Amino acid sequence: MGILVTRPEDAGQHLTEMLNKAGVAAIYAPFIKIEAGEQLNDVPQKLQQLAAGDYVISVSQYAVQYAHQVLQNTGFGWRKDVHYFAVGRKTAALLSEATQQPVHYPFANENSEGLLALPQMQNCNGRRVIILRGQSGRELLPQQLPQRGAAVETVACYCRQAQQLSEAELKFFSRAGIDTIVITSGEILRYLLDFIPKSEHNWLMSCKLVVISDRLMQLALEAGWQQDKIILTEKADNLSLLKTILSFYPHS
What we know:
By secondary structure, the chain is an alpha/beta fold.
């Protein structure tokens, strides 16, 4: 028995450590690595083009981290006269720390749907909106906000690149007794389906998946997992993931 943590970067390592300390055998294997996006260097110019009162939305902590780094490297700063938004609490906290400004986010529903439900998003007539995101982010915000009067630009601050693992390395996970996999993005789910050898797919489909959004749950169902094999966390942060896993997984 064991859990495979696929969340990239430090967050994945931290979650693995949290699980091990709680008495759950967990292996860290980031199938995806995060790198600078092709539009990252456009961030300073895009921010300078905004008018006072316009909106800046960050959809993830990675977007904040990469945007903040490029602003520091180029001698620019975050605007003080625009409104900042994030899709979740952790991203909002990081963005607020970087900008030294208040950041709005949806408390109850930490995703794009929740963000669109905020009062500030109901009428965006005349506002320019910059969305800081990954290279292949969801299209819900860019699709919906123009219908509410906004002029929207997306900026790909980071991208996810697949790690190249050998077939033997990929087969190791079933041999190691992994029976639960933590999935935090659609790219990771697609990686599992595309790169895990076909001979291991019976094992893969037998694993429980711990996912962080309704969208990921739907993708897993469409890929062939049974409903009772998919566990949805309340929120996307590591504490919520840990709480969810400990609620059903044997631990000391």
